[in-house]
Amino acid sequence: MNRSSNVTDPSSAVLDAEPAPLLRVEHLSIDLPGPAGQVRVVDDVSFTVAEGRTTGLIGESGSGKTMTATAIIGLLPAGAAVSGRMAWHGEDLVTMAEQDRRRLRGRGIAMIFQDPQAALDPTQTIGRQVGEILRRGGMPAKEVRRTVIDLLDRVGIPNPETRHAQYPHQYSGGLRQRAMVATALAGSPQLILADEPTTALDVTVQARILALLRRVRDEEGMAMLLVSHDLRVMAHVADEVVVMYAGRICEVGSGREVLNSPAHPYTRALVVSVPAVRSKTAIAEPLPGNPVSPAERPSGCPFHPRCAKAQDRCRSEVPQMRQVAAGRQVACHFPEEA
Ligand code: SF4
Predict the structure, then answer these.
(1) Ligand 1 centre and the CA of 332: distance in Å?
(2) How far is CA 134 from CA 117, 138, 142, 175, in A?
(3) How far apart are CA 67 and CA 63, in angstroms?
(4) Which of 2, 267, 301, 315 to mutate for ligand 1's pocket (most ligand atoms within 8 Å of CB)?
(5) CA 159 – CA 169 distance, rounded (Å)
(6) Looking at residue 337, what is its pLDDT?
(7) Rounded to the nearest 10 degrees, how much is the dihedral formed by the CA atoms of 185, 186, 190, 192?
(8) Residue partners of 232: CB distance under 8 A and separation at least 6
(9) pLDDT on residue 224
(10) Whose Cα sits closest to atom 5 in ligand 1?
(11) Do 50 and 17 contact (CB within 8 A), yes or no?
(12) Which domains does the chain possess?
């Protein structure tokens, strides 16, 4: 039965977030140049990241989640056209001057990348890289050294007095990711963007890095936007989740509720493909079909070629975000009961 109620404006597709919103993304669209013209890779995306909370952006490759995070940090590729608004302390990141964005990077908003090997400079010591933002801020050298050693210690890097003078190749994958977390923390940001921060690590190290991210979020009181295709990661860390498909949001809600009782058929397909998210005994059902590229987004609901519940209406009419329960919004003509 379709329990959907009133259709809402996409701008209200925000999370029931307490405490106050820190970043409000409204109607964000991103077009990138392609061989056959501009391609809309993010389409009318709206959500809020609240202070001290972790919001998870979930989706398969090509869903637009990484591009959304890249727009927030201000590192989109040349030729990208951005519209909409990203409200940050009364300013709009979309229209902010590049020199102000540079100042904000690291200090207000910091990013932890998927591959620390690629993100770290192999020719510079870890200590120098972690302390870069402090030096740029005018901190005296002795104090930078002391602060960096303290940061390495806080993220669980053993022997930080010795380790701060070592190079990335002398670190294991897990320690390199910890060094990336220390680099992000150095500027005391209010928001950390973490793009698939554990994908390159083995399972044991993944769990430790996730525990570290949770701890620093709680200790520092910062907000986090976690980008991942991995629902197990989300189940561990995310307070709220935003599910994306083909550049659009298809479901928003609290992490626990969305992962325990998905309302959008795509979210449900993601959840049942990773049974450990809900039950140790459930059997995995592979996701049907392949993700659609934003350049070939089908008419109507973009998920319809892969959806077992698709009907004629789904092929012609784009579903709008609807409230299906308190704090739950879904873009589907025939959602599951939430
Ligand atoms: Fe499936 Fe239709 Fe809902 Fe799209 S709108 S997810 S095709 S039921």
Answers:
(1) 5
(2) 22, 7, 11, 21
(3) 9
(4) 301
(5) 16
(6) 82
(7) -40
(8) 274, 276, 277
(9) 94
(10) 332
(11) yes
(12) 10-108+187-330 (3.40.50.300)
- Whole-number Å distance, alpha carbon 3 to ligand 1 midpoint, is 14
Ligand 1 mean position, distance from CA 125 (Å): 51
What is the pLDDT at residue 17? 43
Strands 191-195 and 91-92: unpaired
In the chain, what are the helix, strand and coil shares in percent, each to the nearest 5? Answer: 35, 25, 40
Q: Which two tokens stand for residue 254?
A: 């609290």
d(CA 87, CA 212): 28
Q: State residue 10's pLDDT score.
A: 43
* The pLDDT of residue 76: 95
Tally the C-alpha atoms within 13 A of residue 89's C-alpha that lie toward its C-beta: 6
- How many angstroms separate the Cα of 192 from the Cα of each of 124, 189, 319? 23, 7, 31
Check residue 330 and give its pLDDT.
Answer: 97
Please say whether the beta carbons of 301 and 319 come within 8 A. yes
**Cis bond upstream, residue 168 (ω within 30):** no
The alpha carbon of 331 and the centre of ligand 1 are apart by a number of angstroms equal to 8
- Centre of ligand 1 from the C-alpha of residue 225, in Å: 27
CB atoms < 10 A from the CB of 327, how many? Answer: 17
Q: Quick one: pLDDT at residue 14? A: 47
What are 169's two structure tokens? Answer: 């190749």
Q: Whose CA is nearest to atom 3 of ligand 1?
A: 332
Amino acid, res. 327: G
Pocket of ligand 1 (CB under 6 A): 265, 301, 303-304, 307, 309-310, 314, 319, 332-334
Can you list the residues of the chain whose pLDDT is less than 70?
A: 1-19, 275-282
What pLDDT score was predicted for residue 232? 82
Q: Do 188 and 214 meet the contact criterion of CB atoms below 8 Å apart? A: no
Q: What are the CA-CA distances from residue 112 to residues 91, 125, 134, 191, 298 (Å)?
A: 23, 18, 17, 11, 33
**For strand 91-92 and strand 81-88, is the pairing parallel, antiparallel, or unpaired?**
antiparallel
pLDDT tens-digit map of 292-311: 888 889 999 999 999 999 99
